[in-house]
Specification:
alpha+beta; two-stranded antiparallel sheet; two-stranded antiparallel ribbon; 15% strand; elongated; binds zinc ion
Length: 137
């Protein structure tokens, strides 16, 4: 009994060591990956409950694509690029949740400018390059 337990302890230690070595320098998971995985889960659920076989097929393929994408991202060694993807995702997600502001890109330097919504046509001054542009909010 003790022998098996000791062997198992050694085995799991080796396994976690190997896993750590395998994941070293790799990106791991982030909010974007969680979102991709959830979307994949929803897609696979839809593929099961959908009464239309064509939709079910599409959802089935989509769920696999999304899950493979999430695995690819978490195992990726290009951590900078993955980090940027996640940042962009969080930015877009934040904009979608923000109902009190509108977001514009400065036509000159592409700085993101946030202005309150529902003020009609206003002149916006870019905080970075001082470029003025008129937008409807
Ligand atoms: Zn600007």
């Amino acid at each position: 009994m003790n022998g098996i337990r000791g062997w198992f302890r050694q085995f799991s230690a080796k396994l976690s060591q190997g896993l750590r070595a395998f994941m070293a320098g790799r990106y791991g998971t982030d909010r974007l990956n969680m979102a991709i995985l959830s979307a994949g889960l929803v897609a696979s659920l839809l593929s099961v409950i959908s009464p239309f076989s064509s939709l079910s097929m599409v959802m089935f393929v989509l769920s696999y694509v999304l899950m493979i994408l999430a695995i690819f991202r978490s195992l990726s060694r290009n951590t900078y690029k993955r980090y940027q993807e996640n940042r962009k995702f969080l930015q877009i997600f934040g904009r979608m949740k923000d109902r009190e502001h509108r977001y514009f890109d400065c036509p000159k330097c592409h700085q993101m400018v946030r202005v309150p919504k529902g003020k009609g046509k206003i002149s916006i001054t870019c905080p970075r390059c001082r470029e003025k542009f008129v937008k409807k909010t």
